[in-house]
Amino acid sequence: MSRKVKAKPIIKKIIIGILVIIITLSISFKFNREITNTENLFKSLSTYINKLYMLPLTSLSSNNNQDESYLIQKNLNETLKKDINELKSLLDLNHTLTEYAIENATILSRNKSYWFNTITIDKGKKDGIKKDMAVITSDGLLGKISKVYSNSSEVKLITSSDTNYKVSVLLQINGNDTHAILNGYDSDKNLIKVTGVSKTVTPEKGNIVVTSGLGGLFPAGIYIGEVEEIINDKYDLSKTIYIKTKQNFNNIHYVSVLKEKK
């Protein structure tokens, strides 16, 4: 009986925290507008709450038997091993991007309804993050900063369903570069779509795709993926290329934001 009484205040805090996060996220998904001071305040509050309550609720498990404690510790150890390997990969990548200031960040949350559209990271204006900065992992391009708050930012993934979200890319074919546009994601195939490829170009499976640097949105040469499938349009005027990335979009914990050095 006493255990239930002790657990109630914690459960109430969790429910309140979740409600604040849901309200804030519902506001933040209204695109193409300036962020108000009120929204920024709510976002900062939700970031703090999210950091607090995303920690393992070990206090609720203090009275578990030894078998349950062993399983919890085992799962925690496995998670820590994965996190360490992911962080090591990011550090190795940072050494190769000497012309940029690297801001490493942790993913705070994802909205299940927009799972392949956006993620929220724990770095914001106070860390020098700005809108449209490129976001990467050790496996290549992940997306760009779409909204910035004081203590957190939203990242629009390259798998976003936003039809206005386009990235200029290069297909590296037999030592030659061919320009194209990354534009869309096929969730059934789990492949990134690249359009605007001339019918005279002859890409092959395995050709590398990187950012072109055109438009100034992303630095040139960031790895995106490899050609997996090639489809001619019905008029045989152009080709659509489907790209397989190395990213596991379901299992990302850490990212790097590329900031121009002053």
Structure characteristics:
262 residues; alpha+beta; Thrombin, subunit H; 3 domains; six-stranded antiparallel barrel; six-stranded antiparallel β-barrel
Give a topology summary.
Elements (H helix, E strand, L loop, with lengths): L1 H27 L8 H17 L12 H29 L5 E10 L8 E4 L12 E4 L2 E9 L4 E5 L9 E7 L2 E11 L4 E8 L9 E4 L11 E10 L5 E7 L9 E7 L2
Antiparallel strand pairs: 1-2, 1-12, 2-5, 3-4, 3-12, 4-5, 6-7, 6-9, 7-8, 8-11, 9-10, 10-11
Describe this protein's structure.
The chain has 262 residues and is of the alpha+beta class. It has helices at residues 2-28, 37-53, 66-94; strands at residues 100-109, 118-121, 134-137, 140-148, 153-157, 167-173, 176-186, 191-198, 208-211, 223-232, 238-244, 254-260. It is elongated, with a radius of gyration of 21 Å. The protein folds into three domains: 2-64; 82-161 and 249-260, Rod shape-determining protein MreC, domain 1 (Thrombin, subunit H); 167-244, Beta Barrel (Thrombin, subunit H). The strands form two sheets. It has a six-stranded antiparallel barrel. Strands 6-7-8-11-10-9 form a six-stranded antiparallel beta barrel.
